[in-house]
Amino acid sequence: MELLTSNAKLEKQNGIEYLVSGIALAPHNRGAFNVCPDAGYCSAVCNLWFSGRTVTSTVRNAMLNRTSLLFTDREAFMCQLDKETAKHIRKANKLGVLPAVRPNIASDLDWSDYARANPELTLYDYTKVKSRLAKVKRGQWPTNYQLTYSINERSHWRTITSYLEAGFNCSIVFDTEYNPQSHKIGALPNRWTVGGKAWQVVDGDKHDIRIAKLDGRGKLIGLRFKGSRKRMQQAIDRGFVFSSN
Q1: How, if at all, do strands 170-174 and 220-224 pair?
Q2: pTM
Q3: Rounded to an integer, what distance in angstroms lies between the CA atom of residue 128 and that of residue 108?
Q4: CA 70 – CA 47 distance, rounded (Å)
Q5: 123 closest CA partner among 104, 149, 139
Q6: Residue-wise pLDDT tens digits, 176-212
Q7: For residue 125, what are the β-bridge partners?
Q8: Per mean pLDDT, which range of 25-29, 62-66, 132-136 is the poorest?
Q9: Sign of CA dihedral 144, 84, 209, 56
Q10: Checking phi first, is residue 9 left (phi over 0); if not, alpha (psi -120 to 50) or beta?
Q11: Which of 54-58, 103-107, 162-166, 210-214 shows the lowest per-residue confidence on average (mean pLDDT)?
Q12: Which H or E run includes 203?
């Protein structure tokens, strides 16, 4: 069982190439352990559990097994992760690109110690945990590990505005059409108003690497909802998905 997902890929953005990999644990409420301490309605419509190849038992079981290993034998988990990380870095160096890792593909855990132990890595995550963003503000968070605040049904507009004004990026899920199989991918709004101010929206579906070098700072990262119309309507009703109009 690999901890860093094997579908590592090259992503070229703004002329910079990254070798990207990540850690796919079982999402909130999909196993015996809590990997998303501040999860909300997102757990009911998690893209990493309900769409794509993650709906297969093989992939889901691998996610559950990784999660179980992390919580029942953290030492063994970190030992294996260190070996796979070193391999990932060596591969990136051989290719002449930058190694990047998204440690929370479907979770929201604190990987700051992992980031400090691997300063040559670029790490990035979405998070709902405000205390981590507070550490960034205080200079207590590793600079090679960048966080994007994940707007959800509990987010107050004052909170969102304060993060944007401080230079954080905030992700927001829109009801914009997303059906790549039929070649129907709707356009996201260029701007969206929070707290009486229109903020620039960056298309977060163009690439996965959420770092300021590529996205800028103080931006809304627009994401299209992935899932059935029924699930999207439920997410809209619960306040997790927002209207793009």
Answers
A1: parallel
A2: 0.89
A3: 8
A4: 22
A5: 104
A6: 998 888 888 999 999 999 999 999 999 999 988 999 9
A7: 147
A8: 25-29
A9: negative
A10: beta
A11: 54-58
A12: strand 197-203
Closest CA to 162 of 140, 125, 130, 132: 130
Please answer whether residues 44 and 237 qualify as being in contact, where contact means their C-beta atoms are separated by less than 8 angstroms.
no
Report the pLDDT value the prediction gives residue 163, as an integer from 0 to 100. 98
Chain position carrying tokens 């590529």: 214
**What is the predicted pLDDT for the residue at 55?**
62
Burial degree of 111 (CB within 10 A; 0-12, 13-18, 19+): buried
Spatial distance between the Cα atoms of 168 and 163, rounded to a whole number of angstroms: 5
**Closest Cα to residue 42, out of 219, 223, 244, 245?**
223
Identify how many contiguous H helices and E strands the chain contains and give both numbers. 8, 11
Q: Which residues contact 98 (CB under 8 A, 6 or more apart)?
A: 16, 17, 18, 19, 92, 122
- The 3 state secondary structure assigned to 109-157 is CCCHHHHHHCCCCEEEEEECCHHHHHHHHCCCCCCCEEEEEECCCCCCH
Q: For 31-78, write each residue's pLDDT tens digit.
A: 678 898 876 555 545 555 445 555 678 888 999 999 999 999 999 999
β 16-22/9-13 pair status: antiparallel
- Tell me the sheet residues that pair with 12: 17
Pairing of strands 220-224, 197-203: parallel
Distance CA 22, CA 123 (A): 9
**Residues 52, 47: Cα–Cα separation, whole Å:** 8
Q: Is the dihedral of CA 12, 25, 84, 133 positive or negative?
A: positive
Place of tokens 């627009």: 222
